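Subject: two folds for Thursday's group meeting

Dear M.,

Sorry for the delay on this. The cluster queue was jammed most of the week, so I only got both jobs back this morning. I'm pasting them in the order they finished. Each block is the input sequence followed by the predicted structure tokens. Could you check whether the formatting survives your parser before we put anything on slides? The first protein is the one we discussed after the seminar.
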Amino acid sequence: MIHAAKDDAKIRGIYLNPTHVGLGTVKTAQLADALQDFRASGKWVLSYAEYYPQGGYVLAAQADTVMLNPIGSVDFRGYASYVPFFKELLDKTGIKMQIYYAGDFKSATEPFRRTEMSPENKLQTREYLDDAYTHYLEKVSKGRKIEVARLYEIANTMRSQNAEDALALGLVDQIAYRDQADDWMRRRMGLSKEDDITMLEPKEYHLVWKRSSSVSKNRIAIVYAEGEIIPGKGSYGNIGDQRYTKILADLRENDRVKGVVLRINSPGGNILASENILREVKLLREAGKPVVVSMGDYAASGGYYIAADADSIFAEPTTLTGSIGVFTMIPNPYALLNDKLGVRFDTVRTGEYSASFTPFFEWSDAEHESMQVRTDEYYDLFLTHVSKARNKTKEEVHTIAKGRIWSGDRALANGLVDRLGSLNDAISSTATLAKIDDYRTSEYPRVLNPLNRLISQISGQEVSMYDRYLEARLAKHIPHFRELKSLLSYTEPMARLPILFDF
């Protein structure tokens, strides 16, 4: 919408209030670039906020003028990752997590088997944070005309404490109230103080833009794969393999669809579900329809699994990708039940392993070995897919795999992705591969309107309203709530990224 507004004579400027952004580094960087491009046309951008979080400030930095409420502040402290560890809690309760993993850098299970981050996990996290933060500072530097070294010094000494500090440091241009921001816009548009300012929100402007878009019969489908990869139909906010395999199969059989862009913003998930989705990607290509992957904030582990066999893979510089590894984690409450609660089980079995792999008994060495072998086999399958798709030997892939995460910059250097570029770049590449000049885009999955979505939730086709209420309440105060909920639900082999970053 920003790109469309740039060439729209009816749009005079952009008013930005980036207090509640809630986006990852890639999406934020794309918006920052679009704002810079908009300003290059000669139109203005004004940013006003009562408080600028770090993710919002990089957008504000692209404005002509940055205003801050007199009692507001700019959060400018740097990036961090937080990892909770539950091993001591589990030891106290008597719940044993039976853990099997392939890859020294596959850190998903560390919170349940360690009390602190491993050296490998700290190394990969440090590399990614440094890469992402460098790009963040470069975006701010470009917008505010402040050297990166100076910005780093401001953040590292936490010198921006209040509005006066932000003004003195050059992080903002003016301390003002909202009505003064309105007056600024009126002056830029030649309006009197009594005149109203006509504003359109992006969603409203989108409706206007959509009516005037291309009507070509050729289509490029954009499939948004957002969230965790899970078995079944799934719901909004995750990638159910049944739902997505049907979408991809339908696109394969649709003659109007000439190519597919798979936009991945996923930390991964169930490896069997990932395999099913990958199968449909291969079938699309076999049908002669190019598939190009566009990576968002995350396209790691299972997210990379479903991307590996595309014709071309685009990542952004700060995309978190890689994490090629597998783990299996099964809770066993035997000690809790037997030693602490006094609940005991006995069994009659027809064979030595008939009652194996249950939570009611201690597992034998043979059971543990069986689970580790299974996990290693899935890891080998992962390596095989990647090696064939990326024209590397399995040994070469293993060297850059081992569950290790990479930024988009580093993934390009080690051959896990083909190019750095945006979603629009991926769409253009798909059109080139499909050998079409005239086309329109169609987006999948189809988004339900709010009423139908509510009906779907109540009817049980999505997670319960009670779960949504709990998540909304707890996630606000405990950022790791959803991660913990997911990790404790795993029983199948997983290709999953567990790391949370504070941007």
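Second protein, same layout:
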Amino acid sequence: MLRRFLHTLIFLCLLVQVQGQNTAMFRKKAYEHASVGICVLDLSNSKRIAGLNEQRSLQPASVVKLVTTAAALEILGPDCRFETRIEYTGSLVNGVLDGDLWIRGGGDPSLGSRQVDGDSDAFLDQWVKAVKIAGIKTVKGRIIADASIFDDEPVSPYWLWEDMGNYYAAGIYGLGVYDNSFQLELRSAAAGSRPEILSVRPELPLLTIDNHLKAVNNNLDSAYFYGVPYQWARSLFGTMPSNRSRFVIKGDIPDPPFFLAGRFGEELEKNGVRVEGNPVSLRQLADADRLSALPAKILEKTYSIPLSQMIRIIQVKSDNLYTEYLLRHLALSVYGKPATAKDGIKVVRDFWQKKGLDVSALSLSDACGLSPNDRVSPAFLAQMLRYMSEKSPYASVYKSAFPWAGKEGSVAGFLKGTALEGKLRLKSGSVQSVTSYAGYYEQNGKSYVVVLMVNNADADRFQIRKDMEHFLLAL
């Protein structure tokens, strides 16, 4: 008995010594005032291979997306799709619709999305075709965009003002289109001059841009917008490279439902269908409840890409918009419409608590990690990833949604050119003073969960990533 105890004690001492050596690089002066969290688990026996502050809740940035994508996959299933419907109310006689055309939003983030291959306007062609097949030649009423499946608070109150108006902080609407964002094409001259706006795609007739941008002698995109939902004024600040004949930046569409109603109307007019009333969003109407209750006839249904493909987009490209849409759909699955971010967060926490995870280490203000209030511990992420690997019926779907480090997406440069290139499936996270990675490492028939999180280090992101690479290579 004594010998067995001594052997166990020696093993534990060696394990602590090895883990101390592995994490020594994070004890340098650059990390003296930082918060560093590490958790590496061997999935074959659930043993911790390396750990440092793994119970400490840290700001995660985009790795927190994994918490929502996993819950959505479990609750909604990989084949789940979201439906947008074209309907009409009123009477249709001899080609004249004495009533309104409706676009009923189903919370589809992929409608016209640039993240999906193919013609981004194909859905409009289908809608116009459906209207013409129904024999409608004149619409006496309006095109009404109904986004009421979600609430009217499209952006998080916990996001920073400096993010508002930019494409990565685009609002979440029950009816969205084109990733709820636009592309602004610019041309610049000499350093110090103000770049010229060439075009906006898609065209946004109501959009005004107060241009304070400057051209500088570098190759960086440091341009940013300021603006809020439902208001069509945007201010443009920052810098862009000088002497560029074409340079593209992106901002958010201020009111996607209203914009889409107008866009649909334009396409109908081009194809010989007259719409007499002005396009409108249901949110803008005083009698919205009465209008919504009118009997309607469905003309067309448009379906999103499957959930599994959305999760792949989220985890490879770190897409904030898709993640926040999934959060609202989780709210819908339990609480019904209108879906709110707050209810979605409650569904996520309740789900993981029921699975036996300690959610006291999880504090969410959004789903995408843009909020500086988000917190999660490396241990929670590691246990969640372990659950998805060992207990989820969709384990292979979930794992395959991760990009290969050194090869794909947001982790294409991490571990590139090292012995671990293409051997770890990882999700990255970076915002301000946060650098994080989480995912899986599989080799020689063994599987590991890896979580690395650094907050507030006195080093640039390049050096932090190099230290993380050295840590992984030394394991």
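Two things I noticed about the second structure. The two ends are 32 Å apart (CA to CA). The longest strand covers residues 83-93.

Cheers,
T.
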